[in-house]
TrEMBL record:
SMART domains: DUF1943, LPD_N. This is Vitellogenin domain-containing protein. GO terms for molecular function: cholesterol transfer activity; low-density lipoprotein particle receptor binding. One of its GO terms (biological process) is triglyceride mobilization. It is found in: Secreted. It comes from the Eukaryota. Keywords: Glycoprotein, Lipid transport, Secreted, Signal, Transport.
Length: 1305
């Protein structure tokens, strides 16, 4: 019976469990849309594979990218709760591509580490609905591996969908709008435009902080199109997934044609293996550690942390100076910077130390443009190794603190620098970094900063914990600095260290420390919350009548930062008890300005003041002149207010502050605040301008001296100084000596009085930039003088010394002027990295060496300029597999000059060695690279329609000018991307040496020779010889001579290789004969001493009565002689004669124009005479005449188409018709009869060629002046009369216009 009871109890419990399970499943169906896919208390096993392929589609089959395959186990211990295990993961990458374009994979170097890391931690996640997925990873889970697991979960997120329905689904890209296509119950297709996903956006990566163009990741990410298509196969009941395939395409749009171009394709394959029931019902998670499903920013570091890549790249960059591969400089520098960015702190620290030993100049250029937190740490570490550059170190550290979004590592680095050196710039840099980093949470690194500040402050006790002999500091100065920087990061310090705040409050209460430190302690509270302790102590300081005015006002302003009604009431009620007039004046003015303000944020405070004034209505009606005051000016754009604080004992203000505020949309923004605090100026001012000061005493004595010496000035002095009798001084006997004694007294008083001290501080946009003391100003002047001496005297001298002592000098700069890098999420969880950088690399090498004794000077100057744009795109796995594509667009120019100059007594020799390598005047190239772990390959170019040409022309002996072109013609091929994605491209203009010439020399010799009989003629000679020495030597000589006695200048050019021997002779003639004062110039050009051209010019001028100008040109080889002669004679008559004579072979031409003019007549005579022997000029003219006649006959004898007539018949008939028409016309016009009788062209023969052609023309124009005169007088009707004298009407009456119109119509 007992056995049956146990059996019944077992059955009852089983039935209850099944019922409960069924109810759970139903509940799951109602709350989790994946309930039908993954049932509770079961485990599903899938085989998951994802891969990415980066390549240039349409150009080459070369691909690269990682591949991951894992066994995925999904446990469902509770409704809508899942545990995912990834086991047996394999990591591989593309090795080669076969002939069919399919990739062949090999195991990646970090495959075993990847497998262990993927298996280490299971991933728990929950699904509330299709849009709410929460992950609960382990705390030590790597971000990059978690993203891969996110991709697996995203691939399995397929709820029940309906045909043609658009739904919003949660994926690794966030919430995405998804188009559904359902084929029955077993096939579902999904498609997404990833730009419509809320978490698919560019995530900025490290770029150069010095770049002019940066942070363009958002607009540049729009140049990449991203789509995803998925196909899911379910079992026959449409429950769990049997097979899933997703393909995601990312295409870079520039230069792409359709889908062909730079692209990354990511695919996911999921295959169902098995399922079984499980007994696990435990699902414990920490809700505070939940993370969303969407992609998380990756940690992009190198798979292998080694310094070898950076060191080898730096060595290659250094070695470029001795090669002709200067075009590689921009890309090598970018590679160096990129290799630094992927290193972690431990590796980078060792790398930078070795890099500084190789080349400090290049290392600093790379570090400053790196932009990663690790590089910032390396910079701060390297700074400590530099000696003697304290100011530069401070400026660099302060500049690094201005970077946005600092992390823990940067705060730790800044703290280390501050612990190493407590300079003002470094302390402010630490404060700015902490202020930007602190987000309200208590972090260990900020706590360490507060402990360090507390150690330095020591309750303002004046103790220095560690006496740093390298950077000595004064205890009061250090306390003041600490209080200032704590005020910058006050919110963070108050959150992490109450003890530090207590220490600051102790400093505020002390009276035995400098007043500036007391005020700094109070002002350090300006960004902190005013709790009861702070308010109480600050109120005590304010009410302390023994404290100075400045300190009490500083406490008052801190209290007014967060006032309440009771505080305002106490301040107003206590105004009558304030004995210090300066304090009372400031309080009244400040409260009145608040009452008169119309700012909305002051409304509550105005009400508090008005309520406090009900008991004391006249408390703020007091007026104070010339005392401490608060001034405020309001406008629509903002406001400006000033605090001027006086001390009751002094006449100069102790403190002056100006603050401006900008008002935008009813919000106030602090623009800038500047303040000056000064002490100790009164003795100096009193010694200068006091009652017994130097200037009043000296001027008064001078005035009374002048009054005694010159009574006429007394009225003038009375008007200038009417009250001078009040301080009348005795007029000294020796005025100059007395003034000298007053000056000595002034110098003694200033010397023995306390040195004045002033403090200036400046805040910009609410951030305190720093402060400056007058003592520091003096040091700054000394420092500026030192830097002026260094930069404008020492360095130029050193530079010039090195420049003229060696030809091995070199200087190259590298600047990344444009850079934007970002990553995009992919379905596999691998990041898609894209970057675009522009690198500018100018430089030069060379120098000048001069040897005084030998007169030898060597000059070398080789400038170069490189500009390169580097585009990178590819899907990779950070820390494990590197993959991607790079496009390098390079522009490069270089030139060089190497010369040696030797100067002797009368000779200078210039020697230029021939180039040994090509000189690239301009080179523009573009290439595509496939980058994978450990190897870089050039993407093959399209072979079809490939152009590869080199066109060279001889520039001069030994050098060729070449144009090189290499490119593939994309438009000639279908489905090919646009240029330049078709492969390697290059256009170059360069100078190439032929190798036949070793050296070019130019020698200039200057000497004076003796020529003529007995050497009486001095001839100055300048000889230039240019020579190309080598296997194909060429020589050219140019000689210039000047005969001083004969005034003859001759030149000669001889080039033997080109059979050139030309000379120019220039002679100046001057006839001293009294009757024929003729001057002339003759230019003769000869070749091999044979005259080729002669130019002669002659002129004569005799008091404008007899003048002559003649120009003549003779070309013997062409038998040509031309001359123009102009003659002018003036006596009783004026005679001008212009005679032109031209002589050609068998032809002569002469023209003469003669003009005579006197009192009786004007006469012009023209004569022309031309003769040409045709048969002598053209010996074969008869043959030419016969050939032309035969051609005409052949043309006329041709038959007309479709007729029996010839062309001659038609022409003859036309001539006959013309003759008949002319006969009729001649009857009317008789003068046509004579030409008609002479016409005889019916035979159509050419006239005979004359033997001689001539033209004679003779004309005379004479005008005889008439001396007779005839006067003709014409009288005009009514001449000289006005209309008024003629009784004419002044008005003309007219009828109405419309009547006229009717009559006209």
């Amino acid at each position: 019976m007992m056995g049956y009871r146990k059996l019944c109890l077992l059955l009852l419990l089983s039935s209850y469990t099944l019922a409960q399970e069924g109810s759970d499943i139903n509940e799951q169906t109602s709350t989790c849309l994946l309930a039908s896919r993954f049932k509770a208390y079961k485990k599903y096993v899938y085989q998951y594979t994802t891969e990415s392929r980066n390549g240039v589609v349409g150009t080459a089959n070369l691909r690269n990218g990682p591949k991951v395959s894992c066994q995925v186990e999904i446990e469902v211990p509770q409704a809508c709760s899942f545990i995912m295990h990834t086991r047996n993961c394999a990591l591989s990458e593309v090795s080669v591509t076969d002939a069919q374009g399919q990739p062949i994979y090999r195991q990646a170097p970090g495959s075993e580490a990847f497998k262990a890391a993927m298996e280490k931690n299971p991933l728990k996640f929950t699904v509330d609905d299709v849009t709410t997925v929460q992950l609960y990873p382990k705390t030590d889970e790597q971000v990059n591996l978690l993203n891969i697991k996110r991709g697996i979960v995203s691939a399995l997120m397929v709820p029940v969908v309906e045909e043609g329905q658009r739904s919003i689904m949660s994926t690794v890209h966030g919430l995405c709008v998804t188009d559904n296509l359902v084929n029955g119950t077993t096939d579902v297709k999904l498609s997404r435009d990833l730009s419509q996903c809320d978490q698919f956006y560019s995530r900025e990566l490290a770029n150069s902080p010095l770049a002019l163009l940066q942070k363009m990741h958002r607009p540049m990410s729009k140049l990449i199109t991203s789509t995803q298509d998925c196909d899911y196969q379910f079992d026959n009941r449409g429950k769990h997934i049997l097979k899933a395939t997703c393909t995601e395409k990312h295409i870079y749009l520039p230069f792409s044609y359709e889908d062909n171009g730079i692209s990354s394709v990511v695919s996911q394959d999921v295959s169902f293996q098995s399922s079984k029931r499980i007994n696990n019902r435990v699902f414990d998670v920490n809700p505070s550690q939940s993370k969303p499903l969407h992609f998380e920013d990756p940690d992009d570091k190198a798979p292998v942390q080694t310094k070898d890549n950076a060191i080898s790249t730096l060595r290659d960059l250094v070695d470029l100076a001795g090669t002709d591969l200067g075009e590689k400089r921009p890309s090598l520098f970018h590679k160096l910077v990129s290799s630094l960015r992927v290193l972690r702190n431990e590796t980078l620290s060792q790398t930078v130390t070795e890099m500084l030993d190789i080349s400090g100049w290049l290392t600093w250029q790379a570090l400053l443009q790196c932009g990663t937190p690790e590089c910032t740490s390396a910079i701060l570490q390297a700074i400590r190794t530099i000696d003697g550059v304290s100011l530069e170190m401070d400026a660099l550290v302060y500049g690094l603190s201005l970077q946005a979004n600092p992390d823990r590592a940067r705060v730790r680095d800044m703290l280390s620098m501050a612990q190493y050196k407590q300079s003002k710039a470094i302390m402010y840099a630490l404060a700015n970094t902490v202020k930007k980093f602190h987000k309200g949470e208590v972090t260990p690194v900020v706590t360490d900063v507060s402990k360090f500040m507390e150690t330095l402050l020591k309750d303002c006790s004046g103790e220095i914990l560690d006496d740093n002999h390298e950077f000595p500091t004064d205890s009061d100065e250090m306390s003041f600095l600490v209080l200032k920087v704590v005020g910058v990061m006050g919110e963070a310090m108050q959150a992490v260290s109450p003890s530090l705040i207590s220490s600051i409050l102790q400093c505020a209460k002390k009276t035995d420390i400098p007043l500036s430190n007391q005020k700094a302690a109070i002002q350090a509270l300006r960004l902190m919350d005013m709790n009861d302790e702070v308010t109480s102590i600050v109120m005590d300081v304010y009410q302390d009548t023994q404290s100075s005015v400045e300190k009490r006002i500083a406490a008052y302003l801190i209290l007014m930062k967060s006032p309440h009604q009771a505080l305002i009431k106490d301040i107003v009620n206590d105004l009558e008890n304030v004995n210090d007039e300066q304090l009372k004046s400031f309080l009244v003015s400040h409260l009145n300005n608040i009452r008169n303000s119309d700012e909305p944020q002051m409304y509550q405070l105005r009400e508090y003041i008005e309520l406090a004034l009900t008991d004391h209505p006249s408390a703020l009606n007091m007026v104070f002149d010339g005392m401490s005051h608060n001034y405020k000016i309001d406008s629509r754009l903002g406001s400006a207010h000033t605090n001027i604080i006086f001390d009751s004992r002094d006449t100069l203000p102790k403190e002056v502050m100006l603050e401006t505020t900008l008002r935008v949309f009813d919000y106030n923004y602090d623009i800038f605040e500047v303040g000056v605090e000064g002490t100790g100026f009164e003795p100096t001012i009193d010694a200068l301008f006091g009652e017994k000061g130097f200037f009043p005493d000296s001027i008064s004595k001078v005035m009374y001296w002048a009054e005694d010496k010159a009574q006429v000035l007394k009225p003038v002095l009375d008007r200038i100084a009417p009250d001078r009798n009040r301080m009348k001084r005795q007029v000294p006997e020796d005025l100059l000596k007395d003034i000298t004694n007053s000056l000595q007294k002034l110098m003694d008083e200033v010397r023995f009085s306390q040195a004045p001290e002033a403090i200036t501080y400046f805040r910009l946009l609410g951030n305190e930039i720093g402060y400056l003391k007058s003592s520091e100003m003096r040091k700054m002047v000394e420092t500026l003088n030192m830097y002026y001496h260094v930069f404008f005297r020492v360095l130029p001298a050193k530079f010039l010394s090195s420049l003229v002592s060696s030809t091995d000098n070199e200087v190259f700069a590298h600047y990344i002027f444009m850079e934007s890098a970002f990553s995009l999420p992919t379905a596999s969880g691998f990041p898609l990295k894209f970057s675009l950088a522009g690198v500018f690399a100018p430089g030069a090498k060379g120098g000048l060496v001069h040897t005084g004794r030998s007169g030898k000077t060597k000059l070398s100057f080789m400038p170069s300029l490189g500009l390169e744009f580097i585009t990178q795109m590819g899907v990779h796995i950070p820390d494990y597999v590197e993959a991607g594509l790079e496009m390098h667009t390079n522009m490069y120019h270089e030139s060089s000059i190497n010369a040696e100059v030797i100067v002797n007594r009368n000779q200078m020799r210039l020697s230029i060695p021939a180039p040994k390598s090509n000189i690239q005047l301009l080179r523009i190239s573009n290439k595509l690279l496939s980058v994978s772990s450990g190897q870089t390959e050039i993407v093959p170019s399209l072979v079809e329609d490939r152009t590869d040409s080199t066109d060279c022309q001889l520039l001069f002996s030994g050098l060729k000018f070449c144009k090189i072109m290499r490119y593939s013609n994309a438009p000639s091929m279908d489905k090919a991307p646009y240029f330049p994605l078709t492969g390697e491209t290059m256009f170059a203009v360069e100078i190439q040496p032929t190798g036949d010439i070793l050296e070019y020399t130019a020698t200039i010799t200057v000497e004076t020779l003796r020529e003529g009989k007995k050497g009486h003629h001095k001839v100055d000679t300048l000889k230039l010889m240019v020579k190309a020495e080598g296997d194909d030597s060429t020589e050219a000589t140019a000689t210039l001579k000047y005969n001083r006695n004969k005034k003859i200048f001759t030149s000669e050019v001889v080039i033997p290789n080109y059979d050139v021997e030309a000379g120019i002779k220039l002679a100046v003639t001057d006839s001293d004969a009294k009757e024929n004062k003729m001057r002339g110039i003759t230019i003769d050009i000869t070749n091999r001493n044979i005259p080729q051209l002669s130019l002669v010019g002659r002129t004569r001028l005799d008091m404008m009565k007899n003048a002559m100008l003649q120009l003549q040109m003779v070309i013997p080889s062409l038998k040509t002689d031309a001359s123009v002669t102009a003659t002018l004679k003036r006596d009783e008559d004026v005679l001008m004669d212009l005679d032109t004579i031209i002589t050609l072979p068998e032809t002569s031409y002469q023209q003469r124009a003669l003009l005579r003019y006197n009192d009786d007549r004007f006469e012009v005579e023209l004569k022309s005479n031309m003769n040409s022997e045709i048969h002598k000029l053209i010996p074969d003219v008869t043959n030419y005449h016969e050939q032309l006649q035969q051609l005409i006959d052949d043309v006329l004898d041709q038959k007309v188409a479709k007729s029996d007539m010839k062309l001659r018949h038609i022409v003859n008939k036309g001539i006959e018709a013309g003759n008949i028409w002319l006969d009729k016309l001649a009857a009317r016009l008789p003068y046509l009869a004579n030409p008609r009788s002479k016409r005889s062209i019916s035979d159509l023969t050419l006239p005979a060629v004359p033997e001689k052609l001539f033209l004679h023309f003779d004309s005379l124009i004479r005008y005889q002046f008439n001396k007779d005169k005839l006067a003709i007088s014409l009288s005009l009707p009514l001449g000289g009369k006005k209309s008024l004298h003629q009784d004419q009407q002044q008005f003309l009456p007219m009828g109405r216009l419309h009547h006229w119109g009717q009559q006209l119509c």
